[in-house]
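On to our target:
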Amino acid sequence: MLEESPENVNSSAKATGGKTKPDPPAAPATDPPSAKKATKEKSPAVEAKPFADFIQQDYLPALTKALADRGVTDLHVALERSKIAVKGFETAPECSQVIGTWNGGKRQFNIYFFEDDIQGQRAVSCVDLGHTASTIESFLVLERKITLDLLVLGLVLRLNSQKWLLRN
């Protein structure tokens, strides 16, 4: 025996010549919600780039602009791989460093990336008047996720605490 579904009723009524309601027009095809989400995917974050590309293409220009906005006019920044130039670290292995100098070479900062990864261990040192740095400090160690803006802000705040950017 057939169940009475709308399809069966319509087809049996058509076969017997009976009158029934016409089939409703098909609804226009719409994209399922998952298709809409797929088209709105976020582009990968700049922090997801390879380390050297991120530093060269994103961090150095952003840092240069942030320091220029605070009055540093003759800044020279570069990414280098070299030994840590701090007393007591002469035997430490090489690491990637963002080295910035300005004020005619009288002021210098180094940001050390020990693992070639912005999410890895980082440190900073500051040197004045061309001396060799005597201390190295941890840099942004309590932050769970490091972003471009956080790296820039962290260094600006550190240099400001040296009284190198703004005076009290």
In short: The two ends are 93 Å apart (CA to CA). The first helix runs from residue 6 to 16.
